[in-house]
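tl;dr need the bound structure. longer version: we got a ligand (adenosine-5-diphosphoribose) that a collaborator sent over and nobodys looked at where it sits. i said id run it. heres the input, straight from their email, havent touched it
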Amino acid sequence: MVGVMQSPAEDLIGRAARDLLGAKYAIALTGAGISTESGIPDFRGPSGVWTRDPGAESRAYRSYDRFIADPKKWWEERLSAPSVLGDLSSVAPNEGHFALVELEELGLLQSVLTQNVDGLHEIAGTKHLIEYHGSFLKLRCVGCGARFARDDYDLEKLKEEGKLPPACSRCGGMIKTDGVMFGEPIPEDVARLSVAEARRCDLMLVCGTSAVVYPFADLPRIARSRGKSVTIVEINAEPTPLTNEGISDYLVQGKTGIILPRIVAEVKRLKT
Ligand code: APR
């Protein structure tokens, strides 16, 4: 049969699989788009949280200022208001998360740097994970930077006793949610590790992010500044500034929950 005309995406899936097999140090960057197939809305996609409620976005921009101004009031409001992402306690990883776990288990992916706070990469089994914007499952001391599981503190009891914000059990400093708010500095450890990964990788997958929020969106640009020694592959439902500015080498357009497993399947086919 004359060569089957493959769809552009098929060609690019094969190309991404070959790039992964040829890479010495591949990493993956992810955003809210990888979690939409788990039922968690993204922010700027067609039905994103900010798309549907621009007021929520402008309120979010002031959240850190409100925390600094009155941590007790901020905590009381936080414990009574639902997350903009909805109830995260019952969501589960999807095929996109599991595909990245499989690449890590195959030794083809060295780390995942996520903007997501939903904890799904950790739940899926990713071992080398950098939660760039923190995790809703954790708390963090603004004094010493120590992180705690959310359940390490009885927040409702502290609220009833008027003892919010929680006091760090290590240094006595003020504890906040681990999630990084707009205007809040990225925790130093996470910032340093992420830049090191962007400088070290020779392949960067950028999955499910609009790449418009900084400083995370700097990471592909740091990689690109190293010239053609790095291949940057986007896997996203739509083109982004990384696509349009030629920061990424190519975009495999579509759903991460479909494309990533197909890349893994192609990797395994090529490895046999
Ligand atoms: N597969 C692939 N791409 C998807 C999918 C999917 N199933 N669903 C959505 N997308 C794409 C959207 O089209 C969009 O380009 O993922 C991207 C998600 O972009 P955003 O909603 O802006 O999310 P993100 O890039 O993670 O936002 C960064 O902004 O509000 C802050 O702190 C928040 O961490 C977040 C940061």
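gonna send this back to them w/ a short note. Residues 31-33, 36-37, 42-45, 48, 115, 133, 208-210, 213, 236-238, 240, 255-257 surround adenosine-5-diphosphoribose (CB under 6 Å).
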